[in-house]
Design brief:
With 73 residues, this protein is of the alpha+beta class. It is built from 4 helices and 2 strands, in the order ααααββ. A two-stranded antiparallel ribbon has the order 1-2. Strand 1 and strand 2 form a beta hairpin. 0% of the residues are buried.
C-alpha cells in the first residue's frame, strides 16, 4: 500500500516545499517495471481540483472534463 502513502504527499505544502517533488521521484521508482502498480495508477481519475494562487491570479479556473483536468480562462 505504498502508493496510497506516496500519492497523499503529492500536494503543495508550505511547511515542506519539496515534499511533492520527493513523492514524484518515489512514484517513478515504485512504478518502474511494476505492471501491477502501473495498472492501479492508470485506473485513477481526478475527483476534484484545488485552486491555486498563481492560476487564479492569471485568470484561470481548473475543472474536470471527461475525467481529465482542464483549464478555463
Amino acid at each position: 500500500h505504498a502508493l496510497d502513502l506516496i500519492l497523499s504527499n503529492c500536494v503543495i505544502d508550505q511547511n515542506n516545499p519539496y515534499i511533492r517533488e520527493r513523492a514524484i521521484m518515489c512514484l517513478k521508482y515504485i512504478l518502474e517495471n511494476n505492471a501491477e502498480n502501473q495498472a492501479l495508477i492508470a485506473q485513477l481519475e481526478a475527483k476534484q481540483t484545488v485552486s491555486g494562487d498563481v492560476l487564479d491570479g492569471a485568470g484561470y479556473e481548473t475543472t474536470i472534463i471527461d475525467g481529465k483536468v482542464a483549464l478555463k480562462k
